[in-house]
Amino acid sequence: MAIRVRRSSLTMPINTPRFVERSWTRNCDFLNFDFEDSVPQSQKAYARTLVADAIEHGKKGGSEINVRINCSYPEADVPAAVLPGVTQINFPKAETAEQMRNLDQLITEAERVQGIRPGTVRIGANIETTLGVANSYEIASASPRIDAFAGGTGYDMSMDMGVEMFVGFDQFVYNRGEGALVAMALGLVYTGSVYMPDTTGSVGDSDLTRQRAEANRKVGLRSGSGLHPNTVEPQNIGLTPTPEEVEDAKQVLAFFEQLDEQGEVEGELEGRMVDQYEAARAAELLEWSEACAQQDAQKAKAQARARELEAQGN
């Protein structure tokens, strides 16, 4: 199965043309067009009419297209959101497995209506309440469509817990760990983060984003999200192995192959121990690096083509 590369994203209101029309220029691995918090109640119905246009703009840059629906209106949102070109429906404030099973059924029917191959559209479950955290495993395992899992932090979570959002300690420490472990146990893409002090409330701090992305990769996380364009490239860079790490991984694998040929299971390479575990880690890093390179290449090709067409007035 091909590795799904989801290092960077932007969540944006689907009813704001200036965001949607330039979304393809942001170099995101995936775009999250929003029906939920960023769209006022009076514009919900209108937002449902905009998905086809958002797909057209977003796909020009080679990004995967996601739609975040409203947890209160899945019956209205899903038929509008499931169109050819949409790869994932993100469900906010997920609290029960029954919600996921219902969402699966709605997507199945929408795929049938749209002539989309059954099972194409994935589900992303976002945990944003204490009940959701308590039910994390049941939620994440409720449907075979669930491929991505996120949350346990954020504004809604802070409100539900009764804690401040921007403090100098990790008020979400349990939630983060629970979400990451559940996702890893089920083989899902986890969009989360290690803790770093942030008392500013800034959503566009590129330096902090880069530091957090690099730390996330060190603890096994591979996916990021954001609200500001300044966070996209720091995520792309921080969640991609460096050239030095790639070269080191190649050396580790070559050395371990030599050990294996000699009938040895471990040995010392430049002062450090190399065994089957380090070799497996190196192989995973190289596989991820190659997947990132392929993703970057296809985005670059798509964006170059889009700019060419734009220059021609198309």
Task: Outline the structure in words.
α12 (243-261) runs antiparallel to α13. The protein is an alpha/beta fold. The strands form two sheets. Strands 1-2-3-4-5-6-7 form a seven-stranded parallel β-sheet. Strands 8-9 form a two-stranded antiparallel ribbon. The protein has helices spanning 17-21, 44-47, 51-59, 74-81, 97-114, 130-134, 136-140, 155-161, 173-186, 206-218, 232-238, 243-261, 276-311; strands at residues 9-13, 30-34, 64-68, 86-91, 122-127, 146-151, 189-191, 267-269, 272-274. The chain folds into two domains: 9-238, Phosphoenolpyruvate-binding domains (TIM Barrel, Alpha-Beta Barrel); 243-311. 48% of the residues lie in helices and 13% in strands. It starts with 8 loop residues before the first strand and ends with a helix. The chain contains 13 helices and nine strands. It is globular and about 70 Å long. β1 (9-13), α1 (17-21) and β2 form a beta-alpha-beta unit. Residues 8-198 form the HpcH/HpaI aldolase/citrate lyase domain. InterPro entries: Aldolase/citrate-lyase_domain, Citrate_lyase_beta/mcl1/mcl2, Pyrv/PenolPyrv_kinase-like_dom, Pyrv_kinase-like_dom_sf.
Query: How much strand?
Result: 5-15%
Tally of domains: 2
Order of adjacent strands in the largest pleated sheet: 1-2-3-4-5-6-7
Mean of the pLDDT scores? 96
Unreliable spans: none
SSE order, one letter for each helix or strand = EHEHHEHEHEHHEHHEHHHEEH
